[in-house]
Amino acid sequence: MNIQIRQESKVDYQSVFELIRKAFEHEEYSDHQEQFLVERLRLSSGFIPELALVAEIHGKIVGYILLTKIKICNEAKKREYPSLALAPIAVLPEFKGRGIGGRLIAEAHRIATELDFGSIILLGHASYYPKFGYVRMAKYGIKMPFEVPNEHCMVIELRQQALAGVQGTVVYPKEFGIA
Questions:
Q1: Which pTM was predicted?
Q2: Where are the beta strands (DSSP E) in 95-152?
Q3: For 139-164, b where at least 16 C-beta lie within 10 A, e where not — what string?
Q4: Residue 132 pLDDT more than 80?
Q5: CA torsion angle for 66, 156, 171, 122 (degrees, to 10)?
C-alpha cells in the first residue's frame, strides 16, 4: 500500500470535512463536530499550514492530522510556554488499522520539530498514543483547563528537555470552544 503524505491544500477542504465526519461518526467520546473545529482552526492565528497534513492512497484522501499552536500558562510564575495541540487525527473507517494514523503522526512530529516546536499535547485514547512516545501530562505538572481523566491527557517532547521546568494549564485558542 503506497501512502503519500502531503500538506493539505484548499482544494482538499471538502474531502477532509467528509473524512473527519465519517471518521468520528461512531466515536463514543466525541461531540461529532470535529470537522467544524478544523474549519474554525484554519481561520485562526494558531493555524500552521505546514502542520495540516493529508494521507492519500491512489489519489484518495484517507487520513488527516492537524497540529495547532497552543500555550501552557503558569499563573504563579506569570509565564507562558508555546506548544502544539494535536486535534484532530482522522482516518476513514475502512482504512483504519493500516498504519495511516501512525504515518501521519510521524510526519507531523518531523515537521513540527523542523519548525522548532518542542512539544505536542493531545486528548486521546490512552492505549494508542503511548506507542508514539506520548506520556501523561501529569508527569510534567501540566493539566487541561477542564475535567478529564488523566490517562487521556498526553504530551510528547519533540526535543529532549523541551518541557524542563514547564508546568501549568493548557490554554487553547478560542476556536476550540473551551472557556
A1: 0.95
A2: 119-123, 135-136, 142-143
A3: ebebbbeeeeeeebbbbbbbeeebbe
A4: yes
A5: 50
